[in-house]
């Protein structure tokens, strides 16, 4: 069974940095795309950053120049977050478009990791 597990969230002061990691496991043949989304209380979940298997990246305007997404391995993606702001506070979720062993592609979500930025 395919799973995405995030780590690296926590509490940081404004201006600080955090690095989130997501590891995919299970019966995976390939990963087409991985991304990070976030959801603050009372708000809709939004795309933060994504990266394709070919290394093409896409960022939300609000994080451009501060956040960087990378594929550390075929099954691991990281999000380096610098110059954090209180408005970055949210639950961050890993997401992947994954092709399973034996065929079939599906979109998967991790359980989320909390990032809290204090003023």
Summarize the structure.
This protein has 119 residues and is mostly beta strands.
Describe the model:
The protein has 119 residues and is mainly β. Helix content is 0%, strand content 62%. The protein has strands spanning 3-7, 10-13, 18-25, 28-39, 46-52, 57-59, 67-73, 76-81, 90-100, 105-109, 113-118. The strands form two sheets. Strands 2, 4, 5, 6, 9, 10 and 11 form a seven-stranded mixed beta sheet that branches. Strand 7 (67-73) and strand 8 (76-81) form a beta hairpin. The N and C termini lie far apart (40 Å). The relative contact order is 0.33.
Please outline the major beta sheet. Answer: 7 strands, mixed
- Radius of gyration based on Cα positions: 14 Å
Number of strands: 11
Shape annotation: elongated
Q: On the 0-100 scale, what is the average pLDDT?
A: 96
**End-to-end separation:** 40 Å
Query: Quaternary status of these chains?
Result: single chain
Q: Report the β-strand fraction as a percent range.
A: over 45%
